[in-house]
Write a structure and sequence with these properties.
Elements lengths: L1 H25 L1 H14 L27 H4 L6 H28 L8 H17 L14 H24 L3 H17 L13 H39 L1
Length: 242
């Protein structure tokens, strides 16, 4: 019964991952290339290796909260474009599976009508909320220890997901208050910061990258949610109802 649901979810994720790649090359990648000029002029800036999902909009949904393609290049031999496409496909399928699993766990259906709301929820949980305290990072920008950032990002995502559940799917006043507390808590604690915040990258470039990254991620999640709704309703809904 779940095979069609699983396949529909993966196909939707791959579709979103494919469309994400040209969206990144419209704004985000040119900004990364520009920042690398400052990095090279400064004699290089050492970055730790990030896992695959980091390529989605240059924020790292499941791992390093903010990274860029240059970090992934040494591990993949397909060049910048090929690496970006491959990582986005993997990330798209992964986030689609997470969203589909959440819907099954909560007993909710993802449809064409509500798919965009699932996408917006994913964007808020995985990208927007963490970025309140941990902005996307360009090459040559200072950053705290990768493992520390990963841990903070993961905790923030889990707490934000819990907060969204209590606020959106529960009607009790205490649940709404608890949800708000869960969302705000990691930002009150604070995200990890580098000891030295000196950077050769102009603040305007960093700000532009943060905005373009969030816009790219918003596009990705809207496409993913809509594609999930269409794929599941068209291909797997009858099987689940049966």
């Amino acid at each position: 019964m779940l095979v069609k649901y699983l396949l529909a979810t993966i196909v939707a994720g791959l579709f979103a991952g494919i469309l994400l790649t040209p969206a990144m090359y419209v704004r985000s990648v040119p900004l990364i290339l520009h920042a690398e000029e400052y990095e090279n002029a400064a004699g290089g800036h050492e970055h730790e290796q990030a896992a695959a999902p980091a390529a989605v909009g240059e924020t790292a949904p499941a791992v390093a909260p903010h990274t860029h393609e240059k970090e992934a290049s040494p591990a993949l031999p397909f060049g910048r474009l090929g690496n970006t496409l491959l990582i986005n496909l993997v990330a798209g399928a992964g986030f689609a599976l997470i969203t589909g699993a959440a819907a099954l766990f909560l007993g909710r259906k993802i449809t064409v009508q509500n798919g965009i709301y699932w996408g917006l929820a994913g964007f808020f949980i995985f990208n927007l909320a963490p970025s309140f305290s941990l902005a996307p990072e360009l090459p040559a920008m200072p950053a705290a220890d990768l493992a520390t950032r990963q841990a903070w990002w993961l905790i923030t995502v889990l707490l934000t997901a819990g907060g969204v559940y209590f606020i959106v799917l529960r009607e009790e006043i205490w649940a709404r208050v608890l949800g708000l507390v869960l969302i705000v808590a990691p930002h009150i604690y604070g995200a990890p910061e580098a000891d030295d915040l000196t950077s050769a990258v102009p603040p305007t470039l960093a700000s532009e990258f943060a905005v373009s990254t969030l816009a790219t991620n918003l596009f990705f999640w809207v496409v993913l949610g809509t594609a999930l709704g269409f794929a599941i309703q068209s291909y797997a809904a009858s099987e689940l109802e049966a």
